[in-house]
Amino acid sequence: xxxxAVLIVLAMxxxxxxxxxxxxxxxxxxxDRPDVLVPADRPVEARDLRSVRFSLAFRGYRMSEVDAxxxxxxxxxxxxxxxxxxxxxxxxxxxxx
Length: 97
What we know:
It is a single chain. With 97 residues, the protein is mainly α. Helix content is 54%, strand content 4%. It has helices at residues 2-19, 46-51, 63-90, and strands at 56-57, 60-61. It has a two-stranded antiparallel sheet with strand order 1-2. Strand 1 and strand 2 form a beta hairpin. The longest helix has 28 residues, at 63-90.
């Protein structure tokens, strides 16, 4: 009985050592996330948004990737709105022209 208990403890210790990294090393970690391919040198277009694919995390998408794209879109929309206001002011404030 004691012999089996000692063998089980030794086996569990060996498994624990392997799991902790003692023994053969694990494979190198590599980034398997897809690139979010949104052009940085021009405004985002509708076709760009349709082609965006975010990598999945444990409970959904990676929030940092989604937040970065949303921040960029908000900034671009603000610049478009500012440009529209300046254009309307240059035309004399008449939005119909």
